[in-house]
Amino acid sequence: MIALGIRYLLSRKRQTLLTLLGVYFAGFAYVTISGMFIGFQGYMIEQLVDTTAQVHIAARQDYLTEHQLDEAFYEKIVKHVFWTSPPSGVVGYLEVQNPQSWYERLKADPRVQAYSPLIVIPALFTLNKISVSTNLIGCDPEQQAKVTSIAEYMLEGQFADIAAGGNRLILGSELMKQLGAGIGHYIQVTAGAFASVPFKVVGSFSLGNRAIDLQAYGQISDVQRLYHKPNRVTEIAVRLGDYNQAAPIATNWSKISPERVESWDQQNANILSLNSIRDFLRYGVILIVVLVSGFGIYNVLNMTVTQKRRDIAILRSMGADTFDIIALFFSQGLILGITGGFFGLASGYFACRYLRSLPFSGGGFVHATYLPVLVTPAIYVQAMILALLTASIASVLPARAASKLTPIEIIRAGE
Amino acid sequence: MSIKLENVGKQIGKPATRILSDISFEIGDGEFVALTGKSGSGKSTLLYLISSLDNPSEGRIFFSGGALDAMEPEELFRFRNQKMGFVFQFHYLIAELSALENVLMPAWKFDEKKKRQGLAESLLEQFGLKDKMNRLPRQLSGGEQQRLAIARALVMEPQYLFADEPTGSLDTVNGEIVMNIITDANLKRKTTVILVTHDPDFANAAKRQIHLSDGKVVRQ
């Protein structure tokens, strides 16, 4: 029956070719669109996970609410306080309260791969007459390199060059550009109300993210000294063995400490929410393409069933049973699905390989050299399953309709 | 007796229209029977009932003592494939297959193509189609197409051959050729032939005629 199905397909070359093209484009679209969308998402997540801490422990600072200070001022004497001017501002701490206990906890936790204490302060960077206000991050470069991949994004110098101390700085490319600074230049750095201190530029980095590239790194002890806060840290950056566990771990730690603990995905919720929109678009496009190809198969087989009623009658009179007739038409749908799907997937694979070779700047958000297009077997398996499923669903209805035809109906109709 | 009909009747449609009523007769092994009657007398319907392509509304049909309605579907499909051959007014050849492939089509069901290949070729030779066995049906004349259809009906060496107006769409010369082939199948292969025809000349080729009128057997 399958051989006869193939003969039917070959006898209607144009129709078969058009249907094959429908399935082909569905397979091609699935592979390329998925490759691009998932590839970009994956790359973005990879960038977020690699260039920033996976879990971020910071001093907690919350905005005051209207009645938060009622008890402090009036104990429980007054039931309700009506403020003419309600208290406002920030309550909390500027530094991590007990960093030593955090270090011990992090060291003991097998899920933690590395951690890096940081002091992040707002600072004014001045070179000649140009001043730029941004964050200065004090860190231990060796530990920081274990937590993020910053060391891999150095444009000049080595990230470890600040380790020696003696007021050295590594500037982000954007800060470097705005200040007009270069390697070896001395920059005046002012923190808070303290006197400015000269720092020597020993390197620069670029992550492709303008906000990050506007920051500067220094040795932690140098920055603590600049800010007159020896041995204080404002944040602890943590890297985990499995970044997918970051959110539950952060939530758990948050409950048992006064610090604000957030995971990379909690911190970048806005960016990640775009992924669901992209997924929606991806599935929408794929659904349309699949529906079009499915209807193509359905139409062709439906037409074939109508055209081949006489064949069905004679096959029935020769002893063909319901299964044989279903197999005759179902096999045609499957052949279209498999053949079209295979060529669509193959073309999609080569298209993805080509796209991966195209230079890509990252659009100022992520640092990419080439288009991040994903080429993974999972996408191809999904696409093939989808092609087979579409072909099967589209074929089963005409095949069932054909199997229900009795020879006598056709012969009596004088066809 | 090979085929036995017991009070067979047939109604179709809603509201029901009676096509056949109270048909009872027997056909012996190797008999050549012609079902005759005017157009609309029910002879084709009776042929389809006997050949299991349709089910009677009442009554029973037996083949060698076994009732058709008692057969399991699979058993009936096998019986139809192995024991019955069909020739219709229209040839119903499969347009995509060559003459030889069309003849061998019934052998596909139980994977007997190799076994039947020699017989198929010899039938085609016997019917004057040897040099056309690789042609498609559309490349053959009407008479050749019908001969091909008979070869297909005989390739499984059936015990019963059912022919419904096999000469209906043919000219006199081709009609006679087809009738000779059918007669030959009865005489040489001892195939039981049940032929539906309204042509008295062709009906005379049969050893026995069952005449129908208004859905009833009026003479046999």
Task: Give the SSE layout.
The complex is a heterodimer of chains A (415) and B (220).
Chain A: H1 2-11, H2 13-51, E1 55-58, E2 61-63, H3 70-74, E3 90-92, H4 99-108, E4 112-127, E5 130-139, H5 141-147, E6 154-156, E7 168-172, H6 173-179, E8 186-191, E9 197-205, H7 210-213, E10 216-219, H8 220-226, E11 235-240, H9 246-255, E12 260-263, H10 264-267, H11 269-307, H12 309-317, H13 322-356, H14 377-404, H15 407-412
Parallel strand pairs in A: 5-10, 7-9
Antiparallel strand pairs in A: 1-11, 1-12, 2-3, 4-5, 4-8, 4-11, 6-9, 7-10, 8-9
Chain B: E1 3-12, E2 17-27, E3 32-37, H1 43-50, E4 58-63, E5 66-67, H2 73-83, E6 84-87, H3 99-104, H4 113-126, H5 142-154, E7 160-164, H6 172-189, E8 192-196, H7 200-203, E9 208-213, E10 216-219
Parallel strand pairs in B: 3-8, 3-9, 6-7, 7-8
Antiparallel strand pairs in B: 1-2, 1-4, 4-5, 9-10
Largest sheet of chain A: 6 strands, mixed, barrel
Q: Helical amount among residues of chain A, as a percent range?
A: 40-55%
For the largest beta-sheet of chain B, the strand count, sense and barrel status come to: 6 strands, mixed
How much beta of chain B, percentage-wise? 25-35%
User: How would you sum up the global shape of chain B?
Assistant: globular
Strand order of the largest sheet of chain B: 6-7-8-3-9-10
**SSE order of chain B:** EEEHEEHEHHHEHEHEE
Radius of gyration computed on alpha carbons of chain B: 17 Å
Classified by CATH, the class of chain B is: Alpha Beta
Quaternary structure: heterodimer
Net shape of chain A: elongated
User: Helical element count of chain A?
Assistant: 15
What distance separates the N and C termini of chain B? 16 Å
CATH superfamily grouping of chain B: P-loop containing nucleotide triphosphate hydrolases
Total number of distinct structural domains of chain A: 2
Strand coverage percent of chain A: 15-25%
CATH architecture of chain B: 3-Layer(aba) Sandwich
